[in-house]
């Protein structure tokens, strides 16, 4: 009987060690994120043979101006993952909630140089650089950590719909005269979309913050 008890204890101890090791490996395992968006299929010649190569969707080039009158381009986020959204300062519906939630992201990463934020105005005629500067100042945030950008409205709408794949356009039937998505879009260091979150829901933004941490770990050597 004593021999059997010792065997059970030994087996239990071994199981605990294996479980602990498995848990540690799972904890240290780098998360895998899907690349979202439309894929392109490019034909090329390899060793004299015609092959089809799959190219992931990436955020296209853009050039917009921020609240400090500085140009913002994809190169502004070099070496960073970043979160993008679309809004307008006079928005009477979801924008105030979105900005409150994005402030949580800002506060979580304001001292982390690997994370940035960009908010695109879809009402650039009203949202001037000076107005965006005041808006950012009232929120207590600064560029280059958080860019509030404006520019040509057609360029911004196209960037939203074809680049970030979210709704951003004028609509006279909507409150405020514009319709836009409440999405927060997570973009990696290669300009690929790795996650889309509802910026009006705290639990979704909790997940975004968790995913930013996990995405950053995939860049660790």
List keywords for this structure.
about 220 residues, alpha+beta, 5-stranded mixed beta sheet, two-stranded antiparallel sheet, 5 helices, about 35% helix
3D architecture notes:
- With 221 residues, the chain is of the alpha+beta class.
- It has helices at 2-28, 95-109, 129-139, 153-163, 202-217, and strands at residues 40-46, 49-55, 64-65, 71-72, 81-87, 115-121, 146-149, 168-170, 178-180, 183-187, 193-198.
- A hairpin with a 2-residue loop joins strand 1 and strand 2 (49-55).
- Helix 2 packs parallel to helix 5 (202-217).
- It is globular and about 60 Å long.
- The termini are far apart.
- The model is unreliable at 1-29 (pLDDT under 50).
Element layout with pairings:
Elements: H1 2-28, E1 40-46, E2 49-55, E3 64-65, E4 71-72, E5 81-87, H2 95-109, E6 115-121, H3 129-139, E7 146-149, H4 153-163, E8 168-170, E9 178-180, E10 183-187, E11 193-198, H5 202-217
Parallel strand pairs: 5-6, 6-7
Antiparallel strand pairs: 1-2, 3-4, 5-10, 8-9, 10-11
Helix pairs in contact: 2-5
